[in-house]
Amino acid sequence: MKSNGNQFTKRIKWFIGGVTASLLTLVLVACGAASDSQDATADGKLSLNIMMIQQGSEPVKRDNPILKQIEEYTNTQLNITWVPASAYDDKVSATIASGKLPDLMLARRNKDSAMLNAQLSGYFWDLAPYLKDTINLSKMSEEAVKNATVNGSLYGIPRERVLARYGMIFRKDWLDNLGLKEPKTAEDLYTIAKAFTENDPDQDGQKNTFGIQEDSSMELLKQLTIYNGGPNAWGLKDNKVTPDFMYPEFKEALDLYRKMVSEGIISPDFSIAKKYEYFNKGRAGIYFSVIDDAVSRHVDMMKLNDKTEIDVTQNFEGPSGVRVRGTNGYDSLLVIPKSSVTSEEKLKKIIHFLDQLGDGKIRDLIAYGIEGTDYTLENGKVKKTEGTAGTGDLFNLRWGSPAGTKEVIQTELEKKVDQSIMDHAEMAVTDLSASLISETNTEKGANLSKDMVDANTKYVLGELDEQGWNAAVAKWRSGGGDQIIEEFTTYYNEHMSP
What we know:
Strand 11 and strand 12 (321-322) form a beta hairpin.
């Protein structure tokens, strides 16, 4: 590791007040003996306290049969605290501050300032030295590991995601009703979205639809920038790591977005709209997201109207050919806190447990559920049973591929989504900054990013003119943005450049 990495870590510790190391020592002393003495149950099983995100309406119950099978296979007792998604990040912050951490927990947004500080301040075990001897964890995605690494250390197991996951979800029945073809360029997209707004695509005789569903994430803006040849959030421009909004391709996308809002193609309340809401109500015909949303987010909508046909595309041509907005290869970490896991012996047991979650039997269990209940086998292929609870939020325990080892009987849409993601893997444009660290970004980046999001939103709504938007960019740069560029660039040149 380069020497400046150690200096950076020291500066971060100073930044958060200089008390973290002392606090951590107190926590280790207070919790160590009690924690390690309760590693095993009376019958010799490894007892693990886990904090996990709850995305379903109800937490997974203690007697869940899938949970019991996981415990039996891994010889564990899993004491899982389920926290609703809406409160999860706040709960993680409060738990870290309290010092009363579980043995294993899900940590999202690990490069945001609070979680980055926790990693650099020694709250979690560095797992990198322990993975080479594992069966499954040693085969993790290189992209996921690279982007999850902080200053040469891997403070959690990254939950892998495919790279070429983003694209366009649209109403194919609306497209067919208007005699239009799937869009291939940004200009095609504008034409179709305008027709969805003005030409009664649902054929109900009313002008009650609009083209594109958006929300505060402004996903369309991100993808249009990439189609135009720009970066995914951050890229390399004139040998410097530079944010997307300093590229001309971004401004072109922003101006098109503004035009769409002014013409009612994008609903003007997008900044407060709920994702999927207008699409699911049959009021919008297009949205941009991960394309597997097409399979999972509109089941009730399609049941209400059997004429509804949903499709996906990622094949947008631009000046640099077909480009797809990529993920970072992972979306969160499974971290092991040092305050609760104070011995290397217990750490290795937890790593072994995580490694077992990558075994074929557990992958199948998490992917499909229980045979005879959640699915049946037809000619060796998995046929999912409708109306069963399935794996539910236990799915969030997985770190590797969401797929099991068996072939699944799929709908045509499911097949298309999987094939498209596979076909476009080499075209995925990833965020260059995902693997970079900047002290200024850690301290100021979140607020600076919020200011630019606000400026983009006001600009497309017509509340800010071109001069005002340029002033917002200048303010970002003078308020710490230029320093972030310099620090990202230095880190990139020293650690990441070819």
